[in-house]
Amino acid sequence: MSDERANGHDRPPTGAGSPAPRRSVDVGTLVEQAREGRPRAVARLISLVEGASPQLREVMAALAPLTGGAYVVGLTGSPGVGKSTSTSALVSAYRKAGRRVGVLAVDPSSPFSGGALLGDRVRMSEHASDPGVYIRSMATRGHLGGLAWAAPQAIRVLDAAGCDVILVETVGVGQSEVEIAAQADTSVVLLAPGMGDGIQAAKAGILEIGDVYVVNKADRDGADATARELNHMLGLGESRGPGDWRPPIVKTVAARGEGIDEVVDALDKHRAWMEEHSVLAARRRTRAAREIETIAVTALRARIGSLSGDQHLSALAARVTDGTADPYTAADELIAGLTGEQQ
Ligand SMILES: Nc1nc2c(ncn2[C@@H]2O[C@H](COP(=O)(O)OP(=O)(O)O)[C@@H](O)[C@H]2O)c(=O)[nH]1
Ligand SMILES: [Mg+2]
């Protein structure tokens, strides 16, 4: 598929070697407006993230001192399990409690924000006119660094815009679930009865990432069995000590808002537990470390990628082919040359 290239989503996110920006914007003004919670400014900033704008460096520098206030909740689970419905119900619950909420629907599989997200828009539509809610979908496919790079930047925009809670829903399955869990303070894994979900869960490795488990569609047959099976599987891998977090299993009927208060309660408890045990700060540091790593690796890859006609690389290649250097030594020299360049 070549359409994502045409869509311009495959530029390196660091600005290095990127084409000129479509239209230059005044970052200071945008950030100031986003901070006041103006939706258009927030939208522009997330578009800069999505488009991997060269102005991102400036944006992130301006946002940095404004961030850290938001609590990030990730929602993962197979398509159709009820993530968007649950997200919408959670938004209602948080709004009732007077909190400002950001919703980020991330689609790592598609360069377009249409398709699967269209139905989500409908499910979220009741919040569309609420100024205390910011809803945004974002596609990450084609980015070097993908979800691991793009999601934290968009989260930072919503954080700086004053969201108290940010709900991140991933559209898609597999690796993206694990990746999005790494972005969240608390990860919610959703299952539904009758989808062979217990086995799916084990396969996808999601039994390791859930801080809170939700068995949605509890109005359907088999919800109790799914919860039991899940409980059993969680117990199998258990080597928890006293004081360790034991992920709760909450049954919901998201479509009717049933059980949502219990989910909010479980999220609050997990947050309190993390704060009490200094886990929250540690998680956030791990997240920042991953983010720095992704940006650095992406930047290095972009620079190495642009070396194809480079004389130094050609010379190294000649030494490897004539046996006067091994490829590891040559790679070391190449990297040393790259990092030396920067100083
Ligand atoms: N029976 C039942 N259907 C639900 C429930 N929650 C969501 N649904 C339906 O399941 C379908 C998929 O929901 P959606 O939230 O889009 O799932 P997502 O793909 O995980 O975001 C929709 O038709 C919802 O109306 C529930 O608690 N019970
Ligand atoms: Mg959805």
Automatic annotation (TrEMBL):
Record region (Disordered): 1-25
Organism in which the protein naturally occurs: Actinacidiphila cocklensis
Coiled coil stretches, renumbered: none
Sequence similarity: Belongs to the SIMIBI class G3E GTPase family. ArgK/MeaB subfamily.
Basic and acidic residues composition-biased segments: 1-12
A molecular function GO annotation: GTP binding
InterPro entries membership: GTPase/Isobutyryl-CoA_mutase, GTPase_ArgK, P-loop_NTPase
Name this protein carries in UniProt: LAO/AO transport system kinase
Keyword Cytoplasm set for record: no
Pfam families registered for this protein in UniProt: MeaB (PF03308)
Lineage top rank: taxon: Bacteria
Keywords of this entry: Chaperone, GTP-binding, Hydrolase, Kinase, Nucleotide-binding, Transferase
SUPFAM superfamilies named in the record: P-loop containing nucleoside triphosphate hydrolases
Membrane-crossing segments per the record: none
